[in-house]
Design brief:
This protein has 371 residues and is an alpha/beta fold. It has helices at 5-15, 30-41, 65-68, 91-99, 103-113, 148-170, 200-216, 230-239, 264-284, 290-307, 320-331, 346-362, and strands at residues 19-23, 60-63, 71-74, 84-87, 118-122, 128-133, 141-144, 188-192, 222-227, 244-250, 256-260. The strands form two sheets. The chain has a six-stranded mixed β-sheet, sandwiched between helices. Strands 3, 4, 5, 6 and 7 form a five-stranded antiparallel β-sheet that branches. Helix 4 packs across helix 6 (148-170) and helix 10 runs parallel beside helix 12 (346-362). The chain is globular. Residues 46-53, 333-341 and 366-371 have low confidence and may be disordered.
Amino acid sequence: MGKTLAEVAEQLQGANKKVQLIYAFNGTGKTRLSRAFKQLIAPKGAGDGPSSSELADKKMLYFSAFTEDLFYWDNDLGRDAEPKLKIQPNAFTKWVLEEQGQDQSITATFQRYTSDKLTPHFSPDFSSVSFSFERGNQAPEPHIKISKGEESNFIWSVFNALLEQVIAELNIPEAADRSTEAFNNLTHVFVDDPVSSLDDNHLIELAVNLAGLIKSSESGLKFIITTHSPLFYNVLFNELNSKACYMLERFEDGSFALTEKAGESNRNFSYHLHLLQTIEQAIADSKIERFHFTLLRNLYEKTASFLGYPRWSELLPDDKQLYYSRVINFTSHSTLSNEAVAQPTPAESATVKLLLDHLKSSHGFWQQQGA
């Protein structure tokens, strides 16, 4: 029987783990889970609203789509003025920008994930930020409106600066020795999918940096991270030594399940990436060979294992028996006949692409977009 998101949040709280890593398809309910967990840890009315001026009352720090709602564009089209990214008044950005002066740290992180030529400019009161593109010897391009992906990266950079400060303060054992009491009541950090707009290289860099921050935390602070990205999940799994790993599922009746993934299932998950890249490269180069059917079958088998299907054939498209037979014909162990070394026909090669596309689109396993 499935659970409500509130019950899943209770399961996470009850696990009492320093790090909990959750994989879920897009649209499963990761962001809503972050809200349910926040409501469990710090119910409304307890002084923890996003616009509260009292940081000391807060028990949870979270990054999600709701965090991004604190930032909005003022395009000022009527007066043809420069577009600005406005920052709604809130306790966290006020502390990290006004009180701690972390604007340069935010800029450095933002440029690391975008371009060292794309430069944010904070207003004197830190109520807004504009952007310019510095072109070296050429004249800069001022007052540009950055893309949605770049905007998400900027907001993550603000959160990252805050997280660095939080961990550093809480790492001081005696509360009386800390420079601020603002974070003494914090118990949890919830990070919901910060990587939807990053390419693979920057995604890996962000995962490694986030894992490094978490490992540097010596207090009792606990971290929950959700993602739809297999690559992000894989890097964090390998970087973090002590963690609990789960898959979040939503059923047709609207209930949920949080299933722990242990040992071999996570290793299978990481190997998916290598298989996927190998097959995609062969398709792009029009160099499908017989062994690519074996890799495709392996990919289906490992995906089925991770998702909890008893048979990999259950993941195949309609007319499952037809596709099952085609794959089996190419992956049988009878490799001594002349027929076994024959190259796949164009139609057979097309089957590899069709089945790979089906796995990616129908089961959401490799989709990197959306939230």
